[in-house]
């Protein structure tokens, strides 16, 4: 009971279990939970400029509260950050500034966003944060994380996964006393401004406030493009004790028809050698490359690179980070006709929801709830209010 009330006090919202029949909410009934998205930052060694445009002007206040200190009809505000010091329209800022539109939306560096903005210092870094309603955030994320032309049912799946992930990260940020909840890149979820794609808006509206929960908390609802049939529970390099619902013990076979299920990429030997040398300078020339270890899931954990006088071992993740065309950690590699050839399966980290698998499941008649139960075993549907 103490933990339950602590959750209410620290997160501004609480959770209860949904009936299995589901819930459809109107806009007036939507939960009002805000999420803070890090759009950009600037350290002491760098400089940058952030431009804010609003056709109806701005309401500007100091601090994080709603108290308005100044209203202006000016359509543009410029924040210059020089060597870690922020200036607003030429005047030095000494505390957090809150920028809100007097009507409509704010265009930030050429992209239009819902919500408000905060400029503040955090650990000697100046950060630009967009504070936005969770439902608007999810709708925006779907524009970049979903696939164009996919139907409503599969976008309901993605909407609940993205909302669950955002709610999980919000709780995590509160615990860590961090001013932002998520970053606007694929480090967390890609977020690039508002849109009016109706099927995505409908998917968010028809699942409003619904998340997947485990032990009365939103889950870390990870997802990738195509899992390649990898069984997540067999992956060594992940702590499943913190997210047991990601330890799926059975394979997804629904993504087999995707072009991402199996792939092949090749590098000219000279190009591959240059890429390797930029990260591992002790290899003056590359003679050979061998995979020396995989985990039970079939993911590469160690690779040996051999040169004329030395050989080095790199992790599968390190090699993956060197080579942008290699799509996952599930691969084999060999030399052929002067090229380094990679053949592999899947696209992403192989954890959680498989997007192309979910797409095929919808074709096969699965509903969004059954799909989510398949990919996140042991979870329950919950409602944020």
Spans where pLDDT lies below 50 across 5 or more residues: 1-28
The number of E-state strands comes to 25
Summarize model confidence as the mean pLDDT: 89
Structural class computed from helices and strand pairing: alpha+beta
Main sheet makeup: 7 strands, mixed
Radius of gyration: 23 Å
% residues in beta strands: 25-35%
Structural domain count: 3
Tell me the number of helical segments per DSSP (H or I, 4 or more residues long). Answer: 8
- The strand line-up of the biggest sheet is 5-4-9-12-13-2-14
Alpha carbon gap, first and last residue: 18 Å
Helix content: 10-25%
Shape: globular
Account of the 3D structure:
The structure is a single chain. The protein is α+β, with helices and mostly antiparallel strands and 385 residues long. It is built from 8 helices and 25 strands. The strands form 6 sheets. It has a 7-stranded mixed sheet with strand order 5-4-9-12-13-2-14. β19 and β20 (300-306) form a beta hairpin. The longest helix has 25 residues, at 152-176.
